[in-house]
Design brief:
The protein is 33% helix and 15% strand. By secondary structure, the protein is of the alpha/beta class. The chain has a domain at 2-106 and 180-333: Alkaline Phosphatase, subunit A, CATH 3.40.720. An 8-stranded mixed β-sheet has the order 6-3-7-1-8-9-2-10, with helices on both faces. A 4-stranded antiparallel β-sheet has the order 11-12-13-14, with helices on one face. Bound molecules: calcium ion. Calcium ion (CA) binds at residues 41-42, 80, 185, 259-260. Residues 41-42, 80, 185, 259-260 line the site of calcium ion.
Amino acid sequence: MFPTVKSICLLVCLISTILLTSIGFAQDESKPPNIIWLMAEDMGPDLECNGMAGVKTPNLNQMAREGAIYNRAYCTNPICSPNRSAMMVGMHQTIINAHHHRSNRDVPLAAPYKPITSYLRDSGYNCLLGHSLVMGGGRKTDCNFKHTPTGEYDGVEKFGLFDKKADFTPEDQPFFSQIQLQVAHRGDWWKDVRKNSSHPVALQEIQLPKYFADSPEIRYDWAAYLDTVEYMDNEVGLLMQNLKNQGLAENTIVIFIADNGRCNLRGKGYLQEPGIHVPMIIWAPGRVEARTIVDELVCTTDISATVLKLAGAEIPDYMTSKPLMGVDEVQYRDYVRSARDIWDEIDECSRSVTTDRFKYIKNHMPGVPWATDQAYLEINRPALHVMRRLMREGNLTDVQMTFFKDEKPIEELYDLEKDAEELDNLTLDPEYAPVLLKLRALENQWQADNTDLGLADLGKRKPEVGLASEVARAGVKANEPELWERLEAGELMKTNQWMKRYAQSPKKKKKAGAK
Ligand SMILES: [Ca+2]
């Protein structure tokens, strides 16, 4: 979708078309800046300033207008914890053994790897987690190595990522504050966000990608998603106002980024664009020229080195992350390499290379279909059920049926310039043979130059079983079939409550029993 995104963005945001190869660093470097990292959950580049139809995001539009918007930011993994782990260390998750979702929580990071907050603290920064102005307090960490949200860190006996869970204040300067914006993550609040919105996104204004069936249920679900994006934009506005009210705006840099793509078909969990292409804005008046638009490829892990550079902290030699600011000339990437491995009960292994124009995907487990039988997907994606029904009725187009094929191709190749929605796999097109060879070679070269523990453990993996989502799905099907029927009819439901009814964690059950 990016050619449209780019052109609309130019109109909406009136951003300069100058493509900068370096980004200035004019401020007084003697006073280290505060850095705020706003981490949105589960969203694609679906802001108004990205060109998304139907959504209004005035606060992020303003951040983009006053700073730099990155139109080609890509995750190294399309799911929360592997990508968050990669960003926390500044390394691809397959190198640091953090590639499987929710894995290795008892395994310390191997030396020499450390979380970036360790280096920031060494440089005198106070590292803060969360903010009381955002939904849930914004305190998620979710990294696939041994860690605690707060406390000291030595990587051996102490594993604290942040100093404290607290709002930023002038007394904390210089501070690094990471704030999670969870609202776009699917949850029971989606329906309430839409119900309570004074300007719910109009169903007729949204534009669905071609691979979605255009049904009222899917439109409603898409609009509800955009309502959460608007809610999040309002939270960003509150935080920016709080920053200004405390007199901190002048020496604070704000980075906005998402942890993975939107939670819908081909999104979260997939290496196609909706899974790994995320929004990114850096607001740094005096350091970044207003109305900067960057069309070069960047990787979400590049934020890690950028933060260290801005803080004047050491960037460790091992880091593959590249700073996007504070250097004479930014070294943009020729390609971003991403990977998908275990997610809950689904064992999966695929790898991708995204260049300025093309996307190559290697599916190492082609027998695992895109629409695989995963409880989390079934519970959280109304479109999945609606499209299965439409397929049974013979009412899906070929493009829409692709997602429901029994197998994935071993390789995929897309021309993103001509086919932004990745509908036309070009691997068998002779015209694109040289491109296929080139991108395949890039993936092989990446493997030769780096470590991929996700390929090393292939065939010996143990996906999680007995998960809350699986137990809840079984519980609802057995005990409340009418609820499951409503879900299958495409209703956006409050399914988190199902976990409480049927899949209490052992810890909570023990507590309840003790009472
Ligand atoms: Ca996420």
